[in-house]
User: Fold this.
Amino acid sequence: VVSLAVKLANSNIPYVWGGNSLSGMDCSGLVDYVYLHATGKQLPHYTVALENCVYQKPVSQAQAGDLLFWGSHGSTYHTAIYIGNNQYVAAPEPGENVQVQTISQYFMPSFAGTVK
Assistant:
């Protein structure tokens, strides 16, 4: 999961709302694509639905390959793949590509989760 996520972060894939392919993807499309191609697991393409596919844990306990979520449980609005060392791969917003980002106090994930 981590190696594929990092590979995508280095592939100039643009953010495309609703996208889940190499021609463009949004945050949950990135998660869907990586888990399907790395593990064969089909995950929902919607952050709130993804919450039901993980064992929830605090961000401080996130392990490489876990998902990070922003927003309250039941109303999350962003997700990404934790790759370790306080970094994650995300499809951040229109005009930006899939990229590696660092967890910061200014945009702190609300919780993490290990895919079931």
In short: The chain has a mean pLDDT of 97. Strands lie at 20-21, 24-25, 54-57, 67-70, 78-84, 87-90, 99-102, 111-115. Helices lie at 2-9, 27-39, 47-51.
